[in-house]
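User: Predict the full complex structure for these chains.
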Amino acid sequence: DSGVTQTPKHLITATGQRVTLRCSPRSGDLSVYWYQQSLDQGLQFLIQYYNGEERAKGNILERFSAQQFPDLHSELNLSSLELGDSALYFCASSVPRGRNTGELFFGEGSRLTVL
Amino acid sequence: GIQVEQSPPDLILQEGANSTLRCNFSDSVNNLQWFHQNPWGQLINLFYIPSGTKQNGRLSATTVATERYSLLYISSSQTTDSGVYFCAVGIIQGAQKLVFGQGTRLTINP
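Assistant: Here is the predicted structure of the two-chain assembly.
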């Protein structure tokens, strides 16, 4: 158990819908990261938050948004869903070492299926 | 951006065999991690190893940062070692992010 909790574990929805994925980081970790794993793209970095503020952005679509709350949990919102958004979405957390992300620990992922 | 190449892409071995997985990267890094993704999809931390050598039971890893590669050694393989092994690296470019290789799929047959 990495200590990172993600909900829901599985989610099936239809095209055009909106979903919210939730992540609770390890106790004491201030940084949260979101990654998308699809069959054809591998593990892709989406976005990072540090203590409530956006720190880095990857290839995150405009239809996707995220935030980190004062209690440090994070949510990833996916809207106007398309078939291609079907993927495993991972959250990770770490204690950054200066500008180094430090060691990342991953949750079990949320598997999203868009029909 | 940085390129991360893992080899081989696929590896099939018998139980008890040893294996070496390689990760090459195209730029200087100050962060390198190895992960094991098991058949259930979980990403499990193996090593945080931006340089040097570490060992944990049957697994060990070496990173030669100056030559831009890392190696993961698995000895006396067990069927539970099956899955995909990922190398992920980070460089300082603004706020750092971890970039993953495409992985090595390891299958250990009984």
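The mean pLDDT of chain B is 94.
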